[in-house]
Design brief:
The chain is mostly helical and 237 residues long. Helices cover 63% and strands 0% of the residues. The chain starts with 13 loop residues before the first helix and ends with a helix.
Length: 237
């Protein structure tokens, strides 16, 4: 699971944002915004009555947008299979040490310095591979933005340490693609089980099949389920 509170975060400086946005429009690649999210949620409520109940009780979910940068990919890698609080603590510690999270600065860090930022040996290796890929030009995040969902995901997954979930989250939250359903996100499976009052939560493959009926708004469906999951948890605390 990966959820962040707050409002829309515009990634990059204004010129960069405008240039990438114009390129995406020209290529016919859609990006989710708050207006499109609200519209998609209404359409989903017609397909899935329980989604309508979520909207009535908790309102439209946040966009939960993130910056489409190297730093965000590092943060998502840190969020793999740990609590959000633990990942955020490590990411903040990293920012304290190098101020700006870039491939160049990260590659200068020693293993000991990364461990002092709460990185496991495995994740230290993953972020080094990511930094090396960008530094050497084998991964170009600007080029990734111009690719289809499937091609962008495949390009990201060429980097060791980036699997389905990490790539999907980057596409959904940073690139704001409208029809991405994160594979293997346990919070989504649990939320769906609770929403449908099922005895067991679907597994990863079963949930991907279920999500087929939410096309072309699967990213909005994911946000609705996260919204439900977090709101219910907050209400019981």
């Amino acid at each position: 699971m990966i959820v962040h509170s707050g409002q829309l975060i515009v990634w990059g400086v204004g010129f960069q944002f405008s240039a990438v946005r114009c390129t995406l429009i020209r290529m016919g690649i859609a990006q989710l915004n708050e207006q499109a999210l609200a519209s998609a949620c209404r359409e989903l409520a017609e397909i899935e009555p329980e989604f309508g109940w979520i909207l009535e009780r908790f309102g439209t979910p946040p966009l939960w947008a993130r910056e489409a940068t190297f730093a965000t990919l590092v943060h998502i890698i840190l969020e793999q299979q740990v609590s959000l609080a633990s990942a955020l603590a490590a990411f903040n510690k990293l920012k304290e040490r190098i101020n700006e999270v870039t491939p160049e600065y990260l590659l200068r860090m020693t293993d000991e310095e990364l461990r002092s930022c709460y990185f496991s040996r495995q994740k230290a290796g993953y972020v080094r591979e990511l930094a090396k890929s960008i530094d050497e030009g084998t991964l170009d995040l600007e080029t990734v933005h111009e690719l289809s969902d499937a091609d962008a995901k495949n390009e990201l997954k060429k980097v060791k340490g980036i699997g389905d979930w990490t790539a999907d989250i980057f596409l959904l939250m940073a690139m704001r693609r409208p029809d991405v359903m994160p594979k293997g996100d346990l919070a989504l499976h649990v939320a769906y089980r609770k929403l449908k009052n099922l005895e067991l939560a679907p597994n990863s493959e079963e949930f991907q099949v279920i999500a087929e009926r939410w096309k072309p708004h699967r990213a909005s469906a994911a946000r609705l389920l996260w919204h439900f999951y977090l709101s219910e948890r907050k209400a019981t605390q």
